[in-house]
Write a structure and sequence with these properties.
- By secondary structure, this protein is of the alpha/beta class.
- α2 (43-59) crosses α6, α6 crosses α7 and α7 packs parallel to α9.
- β6 (146-147) and β7 form a beta hairpin.
- It is built from 9 helices and 14 strands.
- The strands form 4 sheets. Strands 2-10-9-8-5-3-4 form a 7-stranded mixed sheet, sandwiched between helices. Strands 11-12-14 form a 3-stranded antiparallel sheet, with helices on one face.
- The protein has helices spanning 15-26, 43-59, 75-87, 99-108, 221-226, 236-252, 254-275, 303-312, 337-353; strands spanning 4-5, 67-72, 92-96, 114-119, 141-144, 146-147, 152-153, 164-167, 184-188, 199-204, 279-281, 292-297, 315-316, 327-330.
- The structure holds pyridoxal-5'-phosphate.
Length: 354
């Protein structure tokens, strides 16, 4: 049966990317060797890394603007720590908009007191706080652009005179932004860029080298930059599949083109949530994510029927995170509009049945 994959992460990848990736596992570059059994320092793989970096800067419109691209390991969760290690000297400001922000704060607190500029924790993160101040003498400000678990998304980023650091794990490459506003962007690959195993870091080089502490080599952005992400053996497969996904996106017309598709999917999804009396949305309307739509059944007695209908239509990965319950439709770049159409049809069919 054809599947409609709404999984929150690891998540859907384009079919053509999976096809090319599986071919490279058997026979990379028509050289009768697997991508997985050649040296990461061989020219074919160095070219992959180089091309992936170039595509990132191209898609984000950051070429020639002082940014470096890294493909690291340890997931976005390691960046919670690495950001603080590399940038935190006296004090940093964090916006707490969800479990991932909260975890980023916890790790940074190992190095210093962290100032939470605002938090929506008391409302179980169903909205994005606004109108807070960011102290101008802090080392940096950290925020999470899209809250994967709660389904909220920052629409307008605050004016910020200090380095702006952003965890974009679940909405990188999904919408047009002025990326020059950010000094450090990081994202685990497995939501919108590729398979689990690598983490993208895009950093403006001139914010580095300003802290007095000693930084372990593997955690030091400057060392990683000087070694072109090959301080140690990089996750070759994850980088290669990410490169293929970035190529796929470029061929589609880049972020401008995919944003149109993402908007169509989100509009369709949220209008069903709002019009269908059996469901209610979780996130505050103005802060709704175009990537992860969170919603609940008004009457939980319908859960079994709805879940069965979903299963019978090939819908996968729709369960909400345990901290929110209900449902979460993750509509990442590679999810076709058709999948959202199928889901919405089931929701309205449930309405006629109930
Ligand atoms: C998934 C996710 C993370 C954690 O990523 P890992 O790669 O598993 O460490 C961090 N932040 C956000 C916003 C996420 O969606």
């Amino acid at each position: 049966m054809k599947k409609h994959n709404f999984s929150a992460g690891p998540s859907i990848l384009p079919q053509e990317v999976l096809q090319k990736a599986s071919e490279a596992v058997l026979n990379f570059n028509n050289d009768n060797l697997s991508l997985l059994e050649i040296s990461h320092r061989s020219k074919p793989f160095v070219d992959v890394m180089e091309h992936a970096r170039t595509l990132v800067l191209e898609l984000l419109n950051l070429e020639g603007k002082g940014y470096k691209v890294l493909f690291l390991q340890g997931g976005a969760s390691t960046q919670f720590l690495m950001v603080a290690l590399n940038l935190l000297e006296k004090r940093a400001g964090y916006l707490n908009t969800g479990s991932w922000s909260d975890k980023a704060i916890k790790e940074a607190k190992i190095y210093d007191d962290i100032y939470e500029v605002a938090s929506s924790k008391n409302a179980n993160y169903n909205y994005i706080p606004k109108g807070y101040d960011i102290p101008a003498d802090y080392d940096y400000f950290h925020c999470t652009s899209n809250n994967t678990i709660f389904g909220t998304q920052i629409k307008e980023f605050p004016k910020c005179s200090i380095p702006l650091v952003c965890d974009m794990s679940s909405d990188i490459f999904s919408r047009q932004l002025d990326f020059t506003k950010f000094d450090l962007i990081y994202a685990g690959a497995q939501k919108n860029m590729g398979p689990a195993g690598t983490t993208l870091v895009v950093v403006k080089e001139d914010i580095l080298g300003k802290v007095s502490r000693k930084i372990p080599s593997i955690m030091d952005y400057k060392i990683q930059i000087s070694k072109s992400s090959m301080f140690n053996t990089p996750p070759v497969f994850a980088v290669y599949v990410s490169m293929l996904t970035l190529e796929w996106l470029k061929n589609l017309g880049g972020i401008a083109a995919i944003e149109k598709e993402n908007d169509k999917k989100a509009i369709l999804m949220y209008s069903e949530i709002d019009l269908n009396p059996l469901f209610k949305g979780y996130a505050s309307k103005g802060d709704r994510s175009i990537m992860n739509a969170t919603f609940n059944l008004v009457n939980d007695d319908l859960k079994e029927t709805f879940d069965t209908m979903c299963r019978e239509s090939g819908i996968n990965g729709l369960n909400g995170h345990r901290s929110v319950g209900g449902y979460r439709a993750s509509m990442y770049n590679a999810l076709p509009l058709e999948s959202v159409q199928v889901l919405v049809e089931i929701m309205s069919e449930l309405e006629t049945k109930a």
